[in-house]
């Protein structure tokens, strides 16, 4: 056997004039993936795939005007998966030394040789791979915006955020702190079909959590801003003031008498309902029969006006991508149209288990947009008139097999279309199938801080259990 060649980069992309060397580093990771694939082939693997990633970040936390933590991170990972026919083996390392990389390939091959055949195992079909554009690189959808932020500047921003919140309302008695974070990640995925994909992206955030009141009447709440580019973040002072406003508004909460009533989930909470839908239509849950939506594709689950679309090519989208985690080309497509579930959320393995084709969702969905049919939150409150606005959920009371839903909640009682008093110590309950059918409105007040883009969601009737 010939000796494996060392993993060196030939003619790497030079660093940009601004000192950004991310493209050169991606070239380096791509060179590693290609040579690791060669090593897998030389050991007899019929198929192989390699993922290489790097991530660098900085985060700071302050509390009551003092610095609590400053953390700089630098992580690297290499994962190798081989297939010998339909036997699969995987191994990983963070060590780029020659002997470690060689041992990782050998370990993956050894595991594959001793596993059982799995009829669904293997790479995604070669014909489904994303095609490299004429530029030679996949688009990054404007996702790369490094923030030149050092620890001192990050601390100043966090302190300013917390101070703005504490100073904005005399009822703010304490703080759970403020934080600032920035990260930059690079990844390369390659497989033995000849596919090589490079991605790089950044993400930044500012957050604050404050405590209003004292003694038994203390209430905690917070706010945060997150974006791929620092210029898209809300100002730090605005984040602090919003956290203070939310905490103070929760003082002197009451419970409610148990009853059925309209429930309006605020936008940042409403996306959890869409997450429950995603979990129920994901391939893993379906082929294991662990979902209340088994055999539901093509059925009416929502009102006729309701729609959810997957939009993988959004500029600055949190999950924008030209290909999924298996190299399959992504595409814009409806998940729900006219209230009907159009498809499941599948990678190639779960698709084969179900006798279907991948939906290019290995690794998850790529930006979901929920159709709005109503205005801003104030408009929705006016339309509801009387009921419960939920701004916080607690607990994990979801049965994925039956769809039964029961979670602790807090928020506000709405009377005559306006908040009348804060509410706490209650439970909202129902069944997700019935809840989906009972959605009456989705607001245009989209929360932009997630890849699930939805406004507030009004459900016509749920059981709210309280102590009064």
CATH architectural arrangement of the largest domain: 2-Layer Sandwich
Specify the oligomeric state: single chain
Range of helix content: 10-25%
Mean pLDDT: 94
Number of helices: 9
Helix and strand content put the structural class at: alpha+beta
| DSSP strand count | 17
SSE string, helices as H and strands as E:
HEEEHHEEEHEHHEEEHEHEEEHEEE
Q: Radius of gyration, rounded? A: 25 Å
Question: Terminal Cα separation, in Å?
Answer: 78 Å
Q: What is the CATH fold-level name of the largest domain?
A: PmbA/TldD fold
**Biggest pleated sheet:** 6 strands, antiparallel
Structural account:
The structure is a single chain. With 468 residues, this protein is α+β, with helices and mostly antiparallel strands. It has 2 domains: 22-247, 2-Layer Sandwich (PmbA/TldD fold), CATH 3.30.2290.10; 253-468, no CATH class. The chain has 9 helices and 17 strands. It has helices spanning 22-42, 98-113, 151-167, 236-249, 267-280, 283-287, 348-354, 377-384, 432-437; strands at residues 47-63, 66-84, 87-93, 172-191, 196-212, 219-227, 259-265, 308-310, 333-337, 340-341, 368-370, 387-394, 404-415, 418-431, 439-442, 452-453, 457-465. Strand 4 and strand 5 (196-212) form a beta hairpin. Helix 3 runs parallel beside helix 4 (236-249). The longest helix has 21 residues, at 22-42. 41% of the residues are buried.
Please outline what is shown here:
The protein has two domains: 22-247, 2-Layer Sandwich (PmbA/TldD fold); 253-468, no CATH class.
